[in-house]
Q: What sequence folds into this?
């Protein structure tokens, strides 16, 4: 059923007006470190928009996913409370802007990989963290609008207790976008100091739902050391694009086996492993070297990195040596997404990759510079300049963020999403 030109489209989560630092994610070292700090939602959203613009300028196709209704009154009602009456921790969980990290929205298997030739998306349940566990209904509603064409199948989440955090724990290697790829699902095992958010059982269920060929599907265990070092998702220590796997030496529990399987399934694979002796796991996590967007340009592959990667001498030294040599990454692009980074979300966390024919996607979810101008104007007008944790319970703050989202949806002609 795949028709037209299959390209990769990055759907970035627009950073919502309630972006704040409440320290809700144990195991996410940046979010924990910055808990209680003052956040800048307007600057945060404009940083995200600037990243989208930079990607458009590289010739990449760009889409957008929109902030969810916050506070989530429905979720609070199911907890038999209301925003005004809820204790502070529930208010913070109900108001979180965490849907910005679109890599956690869903897992995507492009049409060439699936038995029915449709592109399958399974919405992530995000069940491990309370503030993320209530994202899925709004994500499901939004993806069902954006991907309503019968080229897509949008699945509801895998039932709990099997934790699923979406594309952040999923990689796809392929020779070309219209050829069958190899899909890699990375899961963690419980037992370390921090939660393992992706459960193998969930990954296997997603692979079955997506009708993947078992012979071209790998289930790979994340190393305990990576999770303990703060890699709460695989995309903090590895990223794949085309025939390239870019990974830290200690990303996986058994890397040699992963590399052997990949070489067997995809003889042209290029594995770029960064040794721990050059970049420690701690440096990989604090710099988000691997939470980069690895993209294909006409001139070869580029890595879209956060400023924090350039600021780390070991990381930047390794990158300079790589682009100066014969490796597959030819170009480095640096973006400023500091507000999101302070909550543990880098350039790759902010985007969901979908390989599809753009003509099959609801155009309201595709952006160009003109539509980003309009979105930026709404952000500038309505998004709060700053939020301190003490303001989270303030009714004026709630009115402000609800008005901001309503203005955005109206301008995008997406009022149908107001309740979901
Ligand atoms: O789930 N941070 C997110 C960051 C998600 C990053 N995504 C990827 N790696 N793909 C998380 O830990 C912090 C929110 C707070 O503390 O208020 C937060 O949810």
A:
């Amino acid at each position: 059923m795949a028709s037209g030109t299959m390209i990769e489209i990055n759907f970035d989560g627009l950073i919502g007006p309630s972006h704040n630092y409440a320290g809700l994610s144990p195991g996410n070292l940046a979010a924990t470190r910055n808990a209680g700090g003052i956040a800048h939602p307007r600057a945060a959203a404009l940083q995200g928009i600037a990243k989208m613009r930079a990607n458009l300028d590289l010739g990449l196709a760009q889409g957008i996913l929109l902030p969810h209704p916050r506070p989530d009154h429905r979720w609070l009602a199911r907890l038999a409370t209301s925003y005004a009456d809820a204790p502070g921790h529930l208010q913070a969980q109900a108001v979180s802007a965490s849907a910005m990290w679109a890599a956690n929205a869903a897992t995507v298997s492009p049409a060439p990989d699936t038995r029915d030739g449709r592109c399958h998306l399974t919405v992530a349940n995000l069940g491990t963290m309370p503030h993320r566990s209530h994202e899925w209904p709004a994500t499901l509603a939004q993806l069902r609008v954006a991907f309503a064409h019968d080229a897509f199948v949008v699945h509801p989440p895998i039932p709990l207790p099997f934790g699923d955090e979406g594309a952040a724990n999923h990689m796809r290697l392929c020779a070309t976008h219209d050829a069958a790829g190899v899909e890699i699902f990375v899961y963690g095992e419980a037992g370390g100091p921090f939660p393992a958010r992706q459960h193998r059982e969930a990954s296997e269920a997603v692979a079955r739902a997506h009708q993947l060929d078992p012979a071209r599907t790998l289930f790979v265990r994340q190393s305990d050391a990576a999770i303990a070092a703060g890699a709460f998702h695989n995309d903090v220590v590895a990223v794949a694009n085309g025939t390239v796997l870019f990974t830290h030496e200690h990303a996986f529990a058994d890397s040699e086996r992963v590399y052997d399987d990949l070489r067997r399934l995809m003889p042209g694979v290029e594995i770029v492993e960064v040794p721990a002796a050059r970049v420690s796991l701690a440096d990989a996590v604090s710099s988000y070297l691997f939470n980069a967007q690895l993209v294909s340009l006409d001139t070869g592959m580029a890595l879209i990195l956060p400023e924090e990667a350039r600021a780390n001498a070991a990381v930047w030294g390794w990158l300079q040596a790589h682009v100066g040599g014969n490796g597959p990454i030819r170009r480095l692009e640096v973006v400023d997404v500091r507000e999101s980074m302070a909550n543990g979300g880098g350039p790759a966390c902010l985007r969901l990759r979908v390989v599809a024919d753009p003509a099959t996607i609801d155009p309201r979810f595709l952006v160009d510079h003109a539509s980003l101008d309009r979105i930026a104007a709404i952000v500038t007008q309505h998004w709060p300049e700053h939020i301190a944790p003490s303001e989270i319970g303030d009714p004026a703050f709630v009115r402000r963020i609800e008005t901001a989202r309503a203005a955005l949806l109206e301008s995008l002609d997406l009022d149908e999403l107001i309740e979901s």
Summary: The CA atoms of residues 236 and 291 lie 5 Å apart. The two ends are 30 Å apart (CA to CA). Residues 21-25, 28, 31, 96, 98, 101, 103-104, 129, 132, 168, 232-233, 235-236, 343-345, 349 surround N~2~-(3-carboxypropanoyl)-L-arginine (CB under 6 Å).
